[in-house]
Amino acid sequence: MTKTAMKRIGEMAKSHGLDDFKWIDPKKIVTGHWVRAKCIYGCSRYGLKACCPPEVPPVAECKNLLKEFHRGLFFHLPKKFEDPQERFAWSREVNKRVLAFEREVFLSGFHKAFIFTPAPCNICGECKSSKRECRNPSLARPTLEAYSVDVFTSARNFGYPAQVLKGYEEETNRYGLLLVE
């Protein structure tokens, strides 16, 4: 990918409110089976969303997808919520913006553009539990965590903050990724 193309995509990112990003080599993203185990044994919504486990590929396939790309735009969205319930509307709005970004990149000639959303899919409000029942399959995208990405280690490796939050009053750091060739 040329520097001109990267600059153009970076400008598109900024026009969708993604101001804090870095170009990365997707092969440097850290994945782990422990991330999937956290979904299975630590998430109260396990099995209830069409873009989350078990409706995503096995860990090895997730890692292989990342290896197919040479460039990725890793983006950071910090946010502090006054009311924890605000995070649902914020997530929906952010996911719609990043999906519009992916579409713009795709329509600009980058046919392999694929985005990982910074928050679980909630385009419909009430998600179906399987991809076959999804009301908006053309908009459904997984998070990095759903694809077994160790977001904590990966974000830190790329120079971003990542820590376990002790409460909703703390600022959250959400991350997403556009894979593109």
Written account of the structure:
The chain is of the alpha+beta class and 181 residues long. It has one domain (3-180). The chain is built from 5 helices and 4 strands, in the order αβααβαβαβ. It has helices at 3-15, 33-42, 59-67, 86-107, 151-157, and strands at residues 21-24, 71-79, 114-116, 172-180. Strands 1-2-4-3 form a 4-stranded antiparallel beta sheet, with helices on one face. The N and C termini lie close together (6 Å).
Q: Outline of this structure?
A:
The chain is α+β, with helices and mostly antiparallel strands.
Secondary-structure blueprint of this entry?
Layout: H1 3-15, E1 21-24, H2 33-42, H3 59-67, E2 71-79, H4 86-107, E3 114-116, H5 151-157, E4 172-180
Antiparallel strand pairs: 1-2, 2-4, 3-4
Features:
alpha+beta, four-stranded antiparallel beta sheet
Alpha-carbon distance between the two ends: 6 Å
Report the portion of residues in β strands. 5-15%
Average pLDDT for all residues: 93
Largest sheet: 4 strands, antiparallel
Q: How many β-strand stretches? A: 4
